[in-house]
Design a protein that fits this description.
- This protein is an all-alpha fold.
- It has nine helices and no strands.
Length: about 230
């Protein structure tokens, strides 16, 4: 007997997969060939639209991580943070698609972009807000436990607080790597003047840290005249 594969979910689409994934809507979000002034608009839109989806997921994971951290669930917080961090790594990796976009092709398609800028990304703004909230929640946890951030510079796999601190640093590093890669891509395809305002803003963001106190904890103390290392 033939199995009945007709969809049971509500919505548009010939299959439940299409209906659940809302494929009719998803695949209609890109400009149609007749609307394009350059064929690489599809590449450009797919990279940026998928970036927004990964950022949406990352922001959701970070927001849930804040809730779990405030409930004292450090292991769950660390796991959620790792998922968000992987999302940023995937966002960074897909920038390699722009290796196939020459400066001449980008200039040809640029009129289609209007005055749009990656700085207007709602996903990135949500990630920023959630990262700051997570930083505050971690600080509150340390204060409640009587732990100084300066003591977190030597990772201890057996200590949940130390592991979470490492996960926070990893998040910060991945975001910085993404920003660095984004900046280099913007210069490579000719989307920004190296001395222009947008390129300058991207360059400044590369060095930004959401959790600066955790990075400072990694600085080695200065070697003074009374320290053992100061006598040779």
């Amino acid at each position: 007997m033939k199995q009945d594969h007709s969809p049971v979910l509500p919505g548009d689409g010939a299959t439940d997969y299409a209906r659940y994934m809302r494929l009719d809507t998803l695949l209609d979000l890109q400009r149609r060939p007749a609307e394009m002034i350059h064929r690489d608009e599809l590449l450009f839109q797919v990279v940026h639209q998928s970036t927004e989806l990964w950022l949406k997921l990352a922001a959701a994971e970070l927001t849930e991580a804040v809730t779990r951290l405030r409930a004292g669930e450090l292991a769950a917080t660390e796991s959620l943070l790792a998922r968000a961090t992987l999302g940023i790594r995937l966002v960074t990796d897909q920038l390699d698609m722009f290796r196939h976009l020459s400066p001449a092709d980008f200039q040809a398609m640029q009129p289609a972009l209007g005055r749009g800028s990656g700085a207007e990304s709602p996903g990135w703004r949500q990630v920023q807000v959630a990262s700051r909230q997570l930083g505050r929640a971690f600080t509150e946890h340390l204060e409640a436990q009587g732990i100084a951030p300066a003591t977190l510079g030597r990772p201890d796999p057996a200590d949940p607080v130390q592991r979470l601190a490492e996960a926070l640093v990893e998040w910060d590093e991945r975001v910085s790597l993404w920003r660095t890669r984004h900046y280099r891509v913007a210069l490579r395809v000719g989307g920004h003047d190296p001395g222009g305002a947008e390129a300058t803003m991207l360059a400044k963001l590369v060095g930004h840290r959401f959790f600066p106190e955790l990075w400072r904890a990694r600085l080695k103390p200065a070697v003074g005249p009374e320290s053992p290392a100061g006598h040779r």
